[in-house]
Design brief:
The chain has helices at 2-5, 11-22, 25-29, 58-82, 92-100, 112-129, 137-153, 161-171, 176-199, 203-208, 231-248, 254-272, 289-302, 306-325. With 326 residues, it is mainly α. One of its GO terms (molecular function) is monooxygenase activity.
Length: 326
Amino acid sequence: MINQFRKLNPINLLLLLAYTFFMRIAIFYETPDQLNFDFLEPFARLLINIDLDNAFSSPANILIATIIVFIQALIFNRVINNHNLLAKPSFLPGLMYITGTSLFMPFMILSPALISNFLLIWVIDKFLKLGKSANSITTVFDIGMIIGVGTLIYFPFMAMLLMIFLALLLFRSFNWREWVAGLVGFFTVFFFLAVFYYWRDNLASFYQIWKPLGNRFPSVFQINLNDYLVLIPVVIIIVLASLQLRENFFRSFISTRKGFQLLFFMFIVAGASFYLKPNFRTWHFLLCVPPGSVLLAYYFSNAKKRWFYETLFVLFILSIQYFLFV
């Protein structure tokens, strides 16, 4: 199966679509009775009054989420191939993205984090273009605005602001205008939101938006390890990919090295940003899927022993299905 997706064959589009539905057999088989979809953060609903909480039935919710994941996988696949992060263009990034979004049941429903992944993939594309642009002020400003819009949809997306500065450190020599441009882009979105709150004579509520920033990072976590055993194959593949990446690191293009460093930090920032949402859900970690998928795809793109990587992938898929049904 991996060997098939190593090729840019048009037939892989159909196989990828079939694979997307296959990975969601468990949730189609045991459809939840009711699924709510909070499209926007409460503070943004005054600006855009869209009530989709109960707009879809459970089957429709899951079906729309499946189609969204497939579309995102194709966009993500194109972005990674365009920036030559893997050995050669393939459908592996899209395959790994779909696999990553199938790890847990909460990943398979409509959620703000799933919608935010459209913006996260767009941000990744713009970050990877920073090193190729002569004047990146406009690009950084755009990234700031995208992060601002993403924050309206899902507040922890704000943590991606940190990635602007990390990306500039990696890809650009210091220019204070570029560092300021990202913040200006971000606060432009919230400036218009503040004006709207002012018009509604509700400026005091606008200040409440920022209260989660004062949350302390939790020091104690209540985790049921049995719910996360499915991550064992993921960890194994990531370790193998890291070893392979280290072996090829200094033989890769400088832009490729910096790209993987950027995605590593993005994975950490996306995962750690859960503390910005006191009542966060498991689907928050969908934000970790795009950067994590690149590392998984890197391993399967460069692995040599076909019997081993094909067997490893099959075991990975079987473990996901087992834990989804059990």
